[in-house]
Amino acid sequence: MLLSVKCFTQFNDSVHHHFRYSGTGIVNRTNEQSSFVINNSLGFGVSHRHTAFSSSANWIYGQQNKNLTNNDLLVTANLDVWRKESRISYWALLSYQTSLSLKIDYRLQGGGGISYTILRTPVSSFVISDGLLFEKGNLVDATLGKDMYQTTRNSTRIKYRFNIQERLIVEGIHFYQPSLQDISDYNISSVNTLAVKLRKWLSLTAAANYNKISRTNRENLILTFGVAVEKYF
């Protein structure tokens, strides 16, 4: 949903809504091994003139040989404000995350910053942004055990969306978030999606999700395939 917000700026001054659901996954089974991962994503956004609000929930669940490997939930809410025809906008973000694979009991982030739009057309966009986030969490450190902490992070974000011939859509959003108190404490998050339009509202999709948390020395990379349904109204 964070990727589609800028597309709303091409509309007129009436209120526009955007709904999107994607379900992707992968299954592997042999005589000795079995594993699966499913990735469900739900998003909703509202845009009007110089503001846009978007929210999303992403849940990844996986097992290997009946052992739980992923039970990861990320919920976000994002607000963008800009002046007409301006390439500069202001954003505010609030998120909640829990992740078995990354050893996160819970993590809360909230903050804001400024964005600059390098490319903006009716079908494509490329945006960079930077800001400050306050983070509070409870992690499971391999050496220390429970790690309850709070810190302030610089958050650098790159996001883009390219719509090629109304048939092929490439999207990406990438974060680098080092702590201002300790540069070795950082988060990396990257999501890339490739979608092939079958109908105006239906797409075949492939997604690559990568995350790294330096505080727990944990990372994951998940590749999934499936379908997406979306509607503008």
Tags for this model:
single chain, Porin, twelve-stranded antiparallel β-barrel, 233 residues, mainly beta, disordered N terminus, 12 strands
Low-confidence segments, given as residue ranges, are: 1-12
Could you say what the CATH topology is called?
Porin
* Annotation, overall tally of beta strands: 12
Instruction: Summarize model confidence as the mean pLDDT.
Output: 90
CATH architecture: Beta Barrel
- The CATH class designation is Mainly Beta
Descriptive account of the structure:
With 233 residues, the protein is mainly β. The protein has a single domain (5-232), classed as monomeric porin ompg (Porin, Beta Barrel), CATH 2.40.160.40. The protein is 0% helix and 76% strand. The protein contains no helices and twelve strands. Strands 1-2-3-4-5-6-7-8-9-10-11-12 form a twelve-stranded antiparallel β-barrel. The protein starts with 15 loop residues before the first strand and ends with a strand.
